[in-house]
Amino acid sequence: MDLFEKLDKLRQEGLKDINQATDQKNLDKIRVELVGKKGQLTEILHSMKDIAPSERPKVGQEVNQIRDLFQKQIDEAKNKFVQALIEKKLAEEKIDVTLPGRKGHLGSQHPINIILDDLESYFIAMGYSVVQGPEIETDHYCFEMMNLPKDHPARDMQATFYIDEENLLRTQTSGDQARVLEKHDFSKGPLKMVGPGKVYRRDDDDATHSHQFQQMEGLVVDKNVTMSDLKGTLEMIAKHMFGQDRKTRLRPSYFPFTEPSVEMDVSCFNCDGKGCAICKYTGWIEVLGAGMVHPNVLENAGVDSSVYGGFAFGLGLDRFAILKYGISDIRDFYTNDVRFLKQFRKEEN
Ligand code: FA5
Q1: How would residue 349 be classed by pLDDT, with cut points 50, 70 and 90?
Q2: Would the CB of 160 count as within 6 Å of ligand 1?
Q3: Where does Mg(2+) bind (predicted)?
């Protein structure tokens, strides 16, 4: 068989092979065999040295034509495979837009966070700023700056988790008072802040006591702040939170950082003041401590107590939540029972 017959045979068989390719991989194999570097066409080109020089241009031309033909057929076959693959994918991944969508389940906000957000917005609207102090607090800010030197008997009022001599888990958010008082520039206006956060005490847990709970500190310092400003503020908070009908009372109390000091009680949600196990048969639940800022607290922070005075309060967010939602055990806030939390879920659409 001469070279032209060989080329003719290769053209026919090559075209047949390309037409019969089963998939892209198979087609690629055929391409390598026909037009690849070590393919049959290249082999024929190498054998040109054995033929008469006058024949060589003709053979070369023929080889080029066959290569172009193969390449064109291979490209067409490849396009067909790609097209078929796209169609298969489109058919498989078809979306039925008439199917109903999947329902997203909403989580619920923790009741204490609901109260916290509500109170924060309330105070912000009255021009207070919101500060956040550290949960691991120093003895210096938690007690000493608050007029509670070491060995002061009133330290027993708040059983403390000490980390070492100087560091402790804060028992109250009152340290925030000292921190902001130190920094406040009174030439720019009065100081009005609230400081919410977690606090810790070595208290025995019961229906209204937890060893970890949340407080919101409040502090207002300016010239001419009076006890009636404090009373008005506390009454407004209570009415805002519990409605007009809930009874409240202020009792004289003692805190080293305020003078005079008071505590506010709200009538028990469970017995409406008659007395029950939740309110320990008093008819009242204590929600906050407050008073007029002690001059020593101002002086300790470098504020002139002969010019400035103010009021402060520390309210128990857990107690607020107990009274607002009628919850009979504070421990429900910390056990993370989903059935309990679900009750505070906003309506799902
Ligand atoms: C204080 O912690 C003062 N720092 C409050 C204060 C601030 C007074 C500024 C004056 C000026 P007391 O220990 O009473 O005070 O706690 C304040 C509130 O935290 C209580 O009224 C109560 O609502 C809440 N509370 C106290 N102990 C617990 C507890 N173990 N579990 C849950 N809530 C508690």
Answers
A1: very low
A2: no
A3: 259
Q: How far is CA 272 from the centre of its chain?
A: 38
Neighbours of 203 (CB within 10 A): 14
Mean pLDDT of 314-335: 93
Q: Is this structure's pTM higher than 0.85?
A: no
Backbone angles phi, psi at 72, to 5 degrees: -65, -45
User: Is residue 20 packed enough to be buried (19+ CB in 10 Å), middle (13-18) or exposed (0-12)?
Assistant: exposed
Peptide bond into 134 cis (omega under 30): no
314 Cβ closer than 6 Å to some ligand 1 atom: yes
Query: Cα–Cα distance between 75 and 17 in angstroms, integer?
Result: 14
Indicate if the pLDDT at residue 245 is higher than 60.
yes
Cβ–ligand 1 distance for 316 under 6 Å, the answer yes
Is 259 labelled a binding residue?
A: yes
Is the per-residue pLDDT at 347 higher than 80? Answer: no
Q: Is the CB of 255 under 6 A from ligand 1?
A: yes
Which amino acid does the sequence have at 62? E
pLDDT score at 158: 83
Encode pLDDT of 12-32 as tens digits: 999 999 999 999 999 999 999
Give the integer Cα–Cα distance in Å for 310 and 320. 24
CA of 314 to the centre of ligand 1 (A): 6
Residue predicted with more confidence, 254 or 102: 254
* 8 A C-beta contact, residue 195 and residue 181: no
